[in-house]
Amino acid sequence: MARELPHHVQQFVTRHSARRRQIGALVRTNRFTLIGALVLAILIPELFHPLFASELAWARSVLPNEPSFYASVVALLAAHVYLRKIGLLPLVDDKVIILPVFAAAYGGVFIAVQLALGRIGYYHPVTSFVIGSAWYLAIAMIRARVTAPRLAYIGCGGPDNDLMLASIEWVHLHVPVLPPDIQGIVYDSHSGIADEFERLFTRATLRGIPVYEAAQLREMITGRMVLRDHPEQVFGAILPEQPYLRVKRLIDLFFAVPASLLVLPVIAIFAVAIRLESPGAAMFPQVRLGYRGRKFVCYKLRSMRSDIPGPAYTTDNDPRITRVGRFIRKTRIDELPQIFNVIEGSMSWIGPRPESLKLGRDYQRELPYYAYRHLVRPGITGWAAVHQGNVALVSEARTKLEYDFYYLKYFSIWLDMVIVLMTIRTVLTGHGAK
Q1: Is 287:357 a contact under the CB 8 Å cutoff?
Q2: Which end of the chain is more exposed for a tag (fewer CB within 10 A), N or C?
Q3: Is residue 185 packed enough to be buried (19+ CB in 10 Å), middle (13-18) or exposed (0-12)?
Q4: What does the pLDDT look like over 111-142, one tens digit per residue?
Q5: Is 61:38 a contact under the CB 8 Å cutoff?
Q6: Residues 6 or more apart from 20 whose CB is under 8 A from it?
Q7: 11-42 pLDDT, tens per residue?
Q8: What 3-state class would DSSP assign to 274?
Q9: CB within 8 A of 303, min separation 6: which ones?
Q10: Is 218 in contact with 153 (CB distance < 8 Å)?
């Protein structure tokens, strides 16, 4: 039988846990994060600005005249809003995306102000960028250490494996009374919920405590939409927002047209290398299933030998892959010709990856609801691509389809921007390449 801890040790552990929860509750608030950023990254650099080193330094720092001050404020607010938006999405590591987000926000605002005014000072934007990104990185690391959410669970059997593996402190509720410091309630809709627990949900909602269905929380944690026995009841209601579909097409063209001019020399160089290493054409056209189930020709740089037979898909350590092919697959250079698919409208920068005609039809036979993924244009990169990489087996395709359906359900510019950042990481690490 385990010995009980001494009373004074129990008191210390209790006080330590309470203090840890208090710190976690504080650093979780966006208000604390934003106020700290404004003080550290905006006001303090302005107080020490070399241009305001006179006796009127404080008065001038309150209402500064220099445009760089206001540019820093706008950039910091833009970075904060973006980080707050993507913080609501699953599988997003704050520490990975903070620097790219701050670089994009400060770089974009600084360039815009520079073009509008001709010239602005460098001191404040640079100082604000360094301090601001360091502050948000520190907050992210503190949150990772002390802010595992404390959630109440109502239902038979307890949370499933996906929920148990998450960094969550679970409290099982058997009576309709909320324990202290509960940050949310999770219930299993397949279990019968008594009336007293329904009333508990109402009281919790009025107190600002969110209530999640277990499948909804699982989506937030895994980034996948679970395929149920009757998926048409859920997926039939999925229709990506038409206004953003049109805006997305304009964004695709805005970036694809100039990018095509930049990638042409790269494509030409690797096309020569491919021809020198193995016989056959440098370009590999393939008929694939695309938007609304229409067939289109997808272009890629050839990465495999064309004189060796093999299956229609790529296997792990496939012997047909050439040395040049292995490099362009790992760095995703083989996908560059698809920029011209984006220009012609058969593809987008971001969306579900298009499958070959044979694989697509095989998947549709095994997964009747597979065609739902064609509600948007296929993409050069996508939510499934940055998490799972290339797959061929039907069992793997099912998981990939869950990622694709999650993308369709939460289709937005914020999710697309997260995918862009995660794609950059994928290119740098080679994750998912075969």
Answers
A1: yes
A2: N
A3: buried
A4: 888 778 776 777 788 889 999 989 988 888 77
A5: no
A6: 146
A7: 444 454 555 555 556 666 778 888 888 888 88
A8: helix
A9: 274, 284, 321, 322, 324, 325, 326, 328, 329, 334
A10: no
